[in-house]
Amino acid sequence: MGKTIAEKILAEKSGQDEVNAGDVVRAEIDSAMANDLTAPLTVDALEEIDFEKVWDPESIVLVFDHQAPPTTIDAAEDQADLRDFAREQDISNLYGHNEGVCHQLMMEEGHVMPSQLVVGADSHTCTYGALGAFSTGIGSTDMAAVFAEGELWFRVPETMNIKVKGELSELVMPKDFVLKTAGDVGADGATYMSMEFTGPGMEKISVAGRMSICNMGIEMGAKTAIVPPDDMTEEYVQDRSDESYSLTYPDEDADYKEVLSYDADRIEPMVACPHRVDNVSPISEIGEVEIQQAFLGSCTNGRLEDLSTAASILDGGEIDDSVRFLVAPASQKIYREALNEGIIDKLVDAGATIQPPGCTTCWGGHLGILASGETCVSSSNRNFKGRMGSPEAEIYLSSPATVAASALTGKITDARKI
Fold first, then answer.
1. Residues 368, 361: contact at Cβ < 8 Å?
2. Which domains does the chain possess?
3. Residue 173: how many CB atoms within 10 A of its CB?
4. Residues contributing to the annotated binding site for [4Fe-4S] cluster
5. What are the residues facing 24 on neighbouring strands?
């Protein structure tokens, strides 16, 4: 029986000829990331063991993105301590000046390559599967073990194959596709599985779009989400790193636990309704939902093509008076590109507030907190009760196009009607 991408990568990283779903292996880590919320816990755990030096300073990445710049004394103290830790351990890959969201920076700065095994102390680390890597989120204590030894135990996951043909229609975005998938699979339908997104339809989706899709694998319970690499993948990594790499593909007779098939041409704008990511409906079935806040950003949808799509919808229009429209570019580089291309001007002219690159509004601990009774339409990845502030607020998840159109009208709106 043939092998999946996950089985092949874990076999290579554990030094074995082959592994099967269900096997337990100890594998070598290529890169490890922790952010300003999770890294302090990792450092605390390291202090409780016989620890002197990290296994490889160049393979560790620290990113301040959740509370950057810090908004509390505790956050400021944590970040100061992490800077000290980085100096003591000779960790040069420290992004501590509002450079952007950790997952965007890992990809953008060349810390992830195809076929690598990458872990992050953040659940949305599965984003990096967009480059054909096995990437997964782990806890802060497990990350301490990685920092110390450079290895970690894994159970080889079963794999779900999502086959995609066709091409997404105008103003229907990869986020709409992955919301459709989440609604079909369910919040626990892919628990501890690898999700392989394959087929000619995936080849038509940009790396940024693939990042959005893989990012939300965890919202279906997946251990990792992976897109087989292609020319677009190689072009992306060659622009960012001169590190050597290999490409890993699934065998034609790979053993899949489940296979789902989609025609991208038939996908329409989708919305995840409160308070579950898998509570998904086509936008045509949502009805009239008034909003007080619209958020465009996060590790799911804060990239240049997302900002550009929103700007094209808003160009010449004005945000509804009842709406706060908050925009957070995923990185400083994206922010600069959007400035240079006039995208930021269009967003600001329409009434948007531009936030510093980072997680900002998404996780409810920095900017854009919701009051009780308020409703937000968001391009982020979670709509749990209390996620963005008051537990009496409601969050709807959608694509950047839907967020922008909704900001214009003051209610959840299909961008194709603008």
1. yes
2. 9-263 (3.30.499.10), 271-417 (3.30.499.10)
3. 28
4. 299, 359, 362
5. 155
Contacts of residue 68, defined as CB under 8 A and 6 or more positions apart, other chains included, come to 36, 79, 96, 97, 98, 356, 358
Kindly write down the DSSP assignment for every residue of 371-401, as one continuous string: PTT-EEEESSS---TTTTB-TT-EEEE--HH
d(CA 201, CA 184): 18
- What type of residue sits at position 283? I
pTM of the model: 0.96
* Binding-site positions: 299, 359, 362
353 CB contacts (<8 Å, ≥6 apart)?
Answer: 324, 325, 326, 327
Q: How far apart are CA 384 and CA 246, in angstroms?
A: 38
**Kindly report the CA angle at 270 between 267 and 274, in degrees rounded to 5?**
155
The single residue listed with the structure tokens 């605390």 is: 44
Per-residue pLDDT tens digits for 15-52: 999 999 999 999 999 999 999 999 999 999 999 988 89
Listed in sequence order, the residues at least 6 apart from 291 whose beta carbon sits closer than 8 Å to its beta carbon are: 322, 323, 375, 376, 377, 396, 406, 407, 410, 411, 412
